[in-house]
Amino acid sequence: MAAETTARVVLTTTDSAEDAERLARVLVDAHLAACVQISGPVRSVFRWEGAVSVEAEWQLWLKTDAARVDDLSARLVDEHTYDVPEVLVLPVVGGHGPYLAWVTEETEPAELDQ
User: What InterPro entries does this protein's entry cite (predicted)?
Assistant: First the structure.
């Protein structure tokens, strides 16, 4: 297992399976995420505008390279339906080398992006 990687996992949530899939497709198509896992519904408990809410949400695990995190985060916020979307970036401290290489390869900017 690799000790140092440039891979990152970005987490977000959304309020529907359809929106989760839409976001995933947009980000993979733009080469900002190599892949996205969608799980849900999950139950989220949070305080918003002074009240505690309990809502069903769908969680997205986006795999990307550190070089693409800023672009992915900006696009995610632009495309998201929430006023204040969750965008958490987690370092990947190890993993299967060929998979990590694939993540980097899949998130290289496309010719049209450059």
Answer: Ion_tolerance_CutA, N-reg_PII-like_a/b, N-reg_PII/ATP_PRibTrfase_C
Angle at the Cα of 21 from the Cα atoms of 16 and 24, rounded to 5 degrees: 125
**Residue 84 DSSP code:** S
Number of H helices, E strands in the chain: 3, 4
Residues 26, 18: Cα–Cα separation, whole Å: 12
Query: Who's near 70: CB < 8 A, 6+ residues apart?
Result: none
Residue-range domain boundaries for the chain = 7-113
Structure pTM? Answer: 0.91
Fold annotation for 7-113: Alpha-Beta Plaits (3.30.70)
Q: DSSP strand E in the chain: where?
A: 7-14, 35-48, 51-65, 88-91
